[in-house]
Design goal:
The chain has about 120 residues and is an alpha+beta fold. It has helices spanning about 15-30, 75-100, 105-110, and strands at about 1-5, 35-45, 50-60, 65-70. The chain has one domain: 2-Layer Sandwich (Double Stranded RNA Binding Domain).
Length: about 120
């Protein structure tokens, strides 16, 4: 998993928050079963001094996921943005399964072994 974590002017991201983001995005990566590249950006709102925006972006094999959240606290904004991405992923996976298609995870690791025959 690769995470590009950037922060705007006057925004210091604590190490605890970096670990928390890495843990939550790791769960998304495990769920999809593929290596992903995440972009996470933190900015401070220009209109208000104490408002922070977190943007999360990543691409999977079939789709692109974006989420943004603005809160008074840096940690809350990150949690909300990641939960929005998780909801998008839930919606995308349920859409595939309801149409009778395979899930995303099933499509990434297809292996066909035609060399071995099984006797009954």
């Amino acid at each position: 998993m690769n995470i590009e974590l950037t922060s705007g002017k006057d925004v210091d991201v604590p190490e605890m928050l970096k670990d928390r983001i890495e843990q939550k995005l790791g769960k998304i990566e495990n769920r999809l079963g593929q290596k992903l590249f995440f972009r996470v950006r933190f900015d401070k709102d220009k209109a208000s001094v104490e408002r922070y925006t977190c943007q999360v972006h990543f691409n999977s094999n079939r789709s692109e996921f974006n989420a943004s959240a603005t809160e008074d606290d840096l940690i809350k904004s990150a949690d909300q943005a990641i939960s929005k991405v998780e909801r998008q992923l839930n919606r995308f996976q349920s859409k595939l399964s309801s149409k009778g298609r395979m899930s995303i995870r099933d499509t990434t690791d297809l292996e066909v072994d035609l060399g071995d025959e099984v006797e009954l």
